[in-house]
Every structure is written in C-alpha cells, then in structure tokens.
Design brief:
Helices cover 28% and strands 21% of the residues. By secondary structure, the protein is an alpha+beta fold. The protein is globular and about 40 Å long. It has 4 helices and 3 strands, in the order H-H-E-E-H-H-E. Strand 1 and strand 2 form a beta hairpin.
Length: 108
C-alpha cells in the first residue's frame, strides 16, 4: 500500500522511484546507500510555527537553510523547533536538545 506522500506524487504526475535501505546517520551515507549524488538527497526538517502548527521544510542535500530568513518568512522569533516529546514520536528523530537534525533524508 502506497503512503500518502507516494500517492500524492503519483497523482501529481511527479516522476519518482522508491529506494529502500538500512539506517543512515548522515546525508553522505544516505547518498551512498541510494547510489545518488549528494545534491539529490533531500532533508526534511520539522519547523514549529505555533501550538499544533508544524511545517515540513525540504532542503536539497547541497543547500543550507538560512535560519534567520526562514524565521522572518514564517513570522516567528527564536528557534522554531518541535518539543522533545514531539521529536520522540517523529520517525528517525530523537528527543535530543538540538532540533537542527532532520527527519530521514529523501532522494529526489
């Protein structure tokens, strides 16, 4: 059964392929495990805008987020990250104090 994300890609006519592999701990490992260039791996970062209001920010592997620009775009101050309790429930994350870690990377 396809996930909601895969159904959305198919319905939108987006060309894609699914590559399954074991756990990776970095973008470099993800690219190597998938046999794709580093730039073709996409990080998914969870951003908290407010109580119960979250966004997923997709960032190509060869790009860096400008946190000040992102905060200005979202109209938030401080560091807009989910709580440790929420991070524990997200796949591929932990409740570690720093939320600059991403969800498992996706290839594009």
């Amino acid at each position: 059964m396809a996930s909601p994300a895969l159904r959305a890609l198919t319905e939108a006519g987006v060309e894609h392929r699914v590559i399954r592999h074991g756990r990776v701990t970095s973008l470099s490992e993800a690219a190597a495990a998938r046999g794709v260039p580093f730039a073709d791996v996409v990080r998914t970062i969870v951003i908290r805008r407010g109580e119960g209001d979250f966004l997923l920010v997709l960032v190509p592997g060869d790009r860096v987020i400008s946190w000040p620009k992102l905060r200005a775009l979202l109209g938030v101050t401080g560091y807009p990250c989910p709580t440790p309790r929420l991070r524990e429930r997200l796949p591929g994350t932990s409740a570690e104090p720093s939320c600059r870690s991403a969800l498992p990377p996706h290839g594009r």
